[in-house]
Amino acid sequence: MSSALPLPKYHRIYLVLRQQLEEGAFEAGLPGEHALMEQFEVSRVTVRKALERLSDEGLIKREPGRGTRPTTSNASVAAPDHTPLTGLLENLVAMGLKTSVKVLEVAGITASESVAQALAIPVGAEVQKAVRVRSTREGPLSLITTYVPQALAKGFGRRELARKPILLLLEESGVRVGRAHQTISARLADAHMAEHLDVSVGTALLAVRRLIYDVDDRPVQWLHGLYRPDRYEYQMELSRVGDIDAKVWVSKDASARFS
Known about the structure:
This protein has 259 residues and is α+β, with helices and mostly antiparallel strands. It has helices at 9-22, 33-40, 44-56, 88-98, 113-119, 150-153, 158-163, 166-172, 191-197, and strands at 60-63, 67-70, 100-110, 126-136, 139-149, 177-188, 204-214, 219-227, 232-241, 248-258. Helix 1 (9-22) crosses helix 3 (44-56). The protein starts with 8 loop residues before the first helix and ends with a strand. Mean pLDDT is 80; it is low at 1-6 and 74-90.
């Protein structure tokens, strides 16, 4: 198991909670101190120190008798650009064929505001949510959550998702994949992520958000992926284009490597 970041326990809890607050979590209020103590396996003093840090930064408001609530919601969906899928589709499918997958959840749910915004569908429309852990021979590689409009997901369920990459299933359902918008950032593992990826709470992970479009530029899949950086890396080849005074780097090809 990977070791946790060399930070005080309260600071790791503060970072994880701040990350979740920035993503719009806890709209109904943060868990109580006892729940946080159990989740992070720490003392009340440690939890209170983390909450005090969040309160000092104005991210939460603690009210006796009413609990602790976020002061703002920073959840957002990145604006899509027009990155071609050249090479990416092949790499993603190849990864799916060379790794094993465990399906944790498949369910039809109503689209939240963020999911609806990403997929360009009405809030409350039905989508298929799937949660899977992908592994190599060395162990867990990624924790993937996908959202697909229910009309496109009627042809596959838990059994199919355990056997084939979702992009292949979409194409078998008649979808012609066109392009993707992808962002890569970092985040810290909370208790749920740590359990499924076999890492410690607070371990740094690669966070990928990928919105897939069909050839008619309609969103067909929204993916949230969390990857262990010791088992996954993303490579990109760049070339310079433009006038000599305004040359910029443009991606030519990208590939993912895993171990």
